[in-house]
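## retry 2 of 3
previous attempt timed out at serialization; input unchanged, resubmitting
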Amino acid sequence: MSYQHILVAVDGSPTSDHAVAQAIGLAQSTGGRIRLLNVMDPVAHISGFEQPEVYSQEVLPRLRKAGEALLHQALERVAQRGVPVDTVLIENMDARVAQLVVEHAQSWGADLIVLGTHGRRGLARVLMGSDAEQIARTAPVPVLLVRLPAGADVAASA
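## retry succeeded, writing output
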Protein backbone atom coordinates (compact mmCIF):
# COMPACT_ATOMS: atom_id res chain seq x y z
CA MET A 1 0.00 0.00 0.00
CA SER A 2 1.22 3.47 -0.83
CA TYR A 3 0.83 5.90 2.04
CA GLN A 4 0.14 9.35 0.60
CA HIS A 5 -1.35 11.05 3.68
CA ILE A 6 0.58 10.23 6.85
CA LEU A 7 -0.74 11.66 10.09
CA VAL A 8 1.84 11.92 12.88
CA ALA A 9 0.72 12.71 16.41
CA VAL A 10 3.48 14.65 18.19
CA ASP A 11 3.85 15.50 21.86
CA GLY A 12 7.53 16.44 22.16
CA SER A 13 8.58 13.15 23.76
CA PRO A 14 11.57 11.13 22.52
CA THR A 15 9.22 8.44 21.18
CA SER A 16 7.24 11.11 19.33
CA ASP A 17 10.45 12.44 17.78
CA HIS A 18 11.32 8.91 16.67
CA ALA A 19 7.83 8.53 15.16
CA VAL A 20 8.45 11.69 13.10
CA ALA A 21 11.72 10.19 11.83
CA GLN A 22 9.95 6.97 10.82
CA ALA A 23 7.19 8.92 9.07
CA ILE A 24 9.77 10.94 7.13
CA GLY A 25 11.30 7.74 5.79
CA LEU A 26 7.90 6.37 4.79
CA ALA A 27 6.85 9.61 3.10
CA GLN A 28 10.11 9.79 1.17
CA SER A 29 9.71 6.23 -0.09
CA THR A 30 6.06 6.66 -1.13
CA GLY A 31 6.10 10.28 -2.30
CA GLY A 32 3.59 11.03 0.43
CA ARG A 33 2.95 14.03 2.63
CA ILE A 34 2.91 14.38 6.41
CA ARG A 35 0.49 16.18 8.66
CA LEU A 36 1.82 16.80 12.15
CA LEU A 37 -0.89 16.89 14.81
CA ASN A 38 -0.62 18.09 18.39
CA VAL A 39 -3.53 17.82 20.77
CA MET A 40 -3.38 20.56 23.36
CA ASP A 41 -4.85 19.20 26.59
CA PRO A 42 -5.57 22.15 28.89
CA VAL A 43 -7.52 19.99 31.33
CA ALA A 44 -4.31 18.17 32.24
CA HIS A 45 -2.82 21.50 33.37
CA ILE A 46 -5.61 22.74 35.61
CA SER A 47 -5.15 22.70 39.36
CA GLY A 48 -8.70 23.81 40.01
CA PHE A 49 -7.56 26.94 41.81
CA GLU A 50 -7.17 29.20 38.77
CA GLN A 51 -9.61 32.02 38.31
CA PRO A 52 -11.35 31.71 34.92
CA GLU A 53 -9.69 34.88 33.62
CA VAL A 54 -6.22 33.62 34.65
CA TYR A 55 -6.92 30.35 32.89
CA SER A 56 -8.11 32.00 29.66
CA GLN A 57 -5.54 34.82 29.67
CA GLU A 58 -2.46 32.97 30.91
CA VAL A 59 -2.74 29.17 30.96
CA LEU A 60 -4.38 28.63 27.55
CA PRO A 61 -2.10 31.04 25.64
CA ARG A 62 0.98 29.45 27.25
CA LEU A 63 -0.18 25.95 26.27
CA ARG A 64 -1.08 27.11 22.74
CA LYS A 65 2.34 28.74 22.31
CA ALA A 66 4.10 25.57 23.51
CA GLY A 67 2.05 23.42 21.11
CA GLU A 68 2.76 25.75 18.19
CA ALA A 69 6.50 25.74 19.00
CA LEU A 70 6.55 21.96 19.16
CA LEU A 71 4.77 21.71 15.80
CA HIS A 72 7.03 24.32 14.20
CA GLN A 73 10.16 22.46 15.32
CA ALA A 74 8.86 19.16 13.90
CA LEU A 75 7.70 20.90 10.70
CA GLU A 76 11.19 22.29 10.07
CA ARG A 77 12.69 18.85 10.60
CA VAL A 78 10.32 17.27 8.05
CA ALA A 79 10.63 20.11 5.53
CA GLN A 80 14.45 19.87 5.64
CA ARG A 81 14.09 16.34 4.32
CA GLY A 82 12.03 17.55 1.35
CA VAL A 83 8.73 16.05 2.47
CA PRO A 84 5.54 18.11 2.03
CA VAL A 85 4.25 18.87 5.51
CA ASP A 86 1.66 20.89 7.37
CA THR A 87 0.53 21.13 10.99
CA VAL A 88 -2.65 21.15 13.03
CA LEU A 89 -3.08 22.14 16.66
CA ILE A 90 -6.26 20.88 18.29
CA GLU A 91 -7.45 22.33 21.56
CA ASN A 92 -8.98 19.53 23.59
CA MET A 93 -11.63 20.54 26.08
CA ASP A 94 -13.34 17.30 27.04
CA ALA A 95 -12.62 14.46 24.59
CA ARG A 96 -10.02 11.73 24.85
CA VAL A 97 -6.85 12.46 22.89
CA ALA A 98 -7.25 9.15 21.04
CA GLN A 99 -10.72 10.10 19.86
CA LEU A 100 -9.50 13.44 18.50
CA VAL A 101 -6.60 11.83 16.63
CA VAL A 102 -8.88 9.22 15.03
CA GLU A 103 -11.48 11.84 14.09
CA HIS A 104 -8.84 14.05 12.50
CA ALA A 105 -7.39 11.10 10.58
CA GLN A 106 -10.85 10.41 9.15
CA SER A 107 -11.62 14.01 8.23
CA TRP A 108 -8.20 14.61 6.63
CA GLY A 109 -8.23 11.32 4.71
CA ALA A 110 -5.12 9.85 6.32
CA ASP A 111 -3.82 6.56 4.89
CA LEU A 112 -1.66 5.89 7.97
CA ILE A 113 -1.31 7.15 11.53
CA VAL A 114 2.17 7.14 13.05
CA LEU A 115 2.74 7.73 16.75
CA GLY A 116 5.20 6.99 19.46
CA THR A 117 4.30 4.70 22.29
CA HIS A 118 5.77 4.99 25.73
CA GLY A 119 5.58 1.24 26.19
CA ARG A 120 3.81 1.20 29.53
CA ARG A 121 3.19 -2.29 30.81
CA GLY A 122 1.24 -3.93 33.55
CA LEU A 123 -0.43 -1.83 36.22
CA ALA A 124 0.69 1.53 34.76
CA ARG A 125 -1.06 0.74 31.48
CA VAL A 126 -4.17 -0.48 33.27
CA LEU A 127 -4.37 2.62 35.47
CA MET A 128 -3.46 5.23 32.86
CA GLY A 129 -4.88 3.65 29.75
CA SER A 130 -3.05 4.12 26.52
CA ASP A 131 -3.91 6.66 23.84
CA ALA A 132 -1.74 4.72 21.39
CA GLU A 133 -3.58 1.49 22.13
CA GLN A 134 -6.97 3.21 21.82
CA ILE A 135 -5.99 4.79 18.49
CA ALA A 136 -4.80 1.42 17.19
CA ARG A 137 -8.11 -0.19 18.19
CA THR A 138 -10.43 2.45 16.73
CA ALA A 139 -8.61 3.95 13.73
CA PRO A 140 -10.10 3.26 10.31
CA VAL A 141 -6.59 3.11 8.79
CA PRO A 142 -3.34 1.31 9.68
CA VAL A 143 -1.48 2.60 12.74
CA LEU A 144 2.29 2.40 13.09
CA LEU A 145 3.30 2.40 16.76
CA VAL A 146 6.92 3.44 17.19
CA ARG A 147 9.09 2.75 20.23
CA LEU A 148 12.51 4.12 20.96
CA PRO A 149 15.31 1.90 19.71
CA ALA A 150 16.78 -0.42 22.33
CA GLY A 151 19.35 1.36 24.44
CA ALA A 152 18.09 4.85 23.61
CA ASP A 153 18.62 7.22 26.51
CA VAL A 154 15.17 8.56 27.34
CA ALA A 155 16.40 10.76 30.19
CA ALA A 156 18.99 12.51 28.04
CA SER A 157 16.51 13.36 25.30
CA ALA A 158 13.52 14.21 27.46
